[in-house]
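Morning run. Coffee first, then this:
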Amino acid sequence: MPWTPPTGPSRRSLLAGAAATAGAALAAGCSGGSRPPGPPSGVALERRMRASAVRDSERLLERYDATAAAHPALAGRLAPLRSAVAAHAGALAWPGGAGGAAGKAAGAASGPAAPSGTQSPGGTPPADGVQVPPEPEKALAALADAEQALAEARTAALAGAPGELARMLASVAACGAVHVHLLTPAPGAAS
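And here it is:
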């Protein structure tokens, strides 16, 4: 009997088709809702970074207020620096945001804010919980250390910040570095 070709798909083509279908089903299943969320959108990232920067400025304002309250003789020297920090909080706030923490911080630029008595989201105690050294020189040094730490943190945040926010953070970090210089006595200078 002579050989006749099979009438239908071959076993090899059936297996290849089944493998392709299974692969497509697996790929479709993996791309569903079970995948971990990707990086946040640019807008969400910027909102979060701005909110964090505003909270950092508000905590620094609390330090300025506590230092001025503990050492009234330093209040005049600290007032322009505190005013700049309040302006930073307002500038870093989400554009178009009404009132909120940034508005409160910027509005408080003319004088110390009343402590709220609640803990901030970052875990820093309110102004009445800020420890201020009893010696004015050490109080200024503690304030300079806080400014330095914040300037360094803002500089580190530049890498992940969207364009305009990165420029603003760089500017505010530079201003913080100037504040450190102004709060730190020159070597050999009489206090």
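Residues 42-70 form the longest helix (29 residues). Good start to the day.
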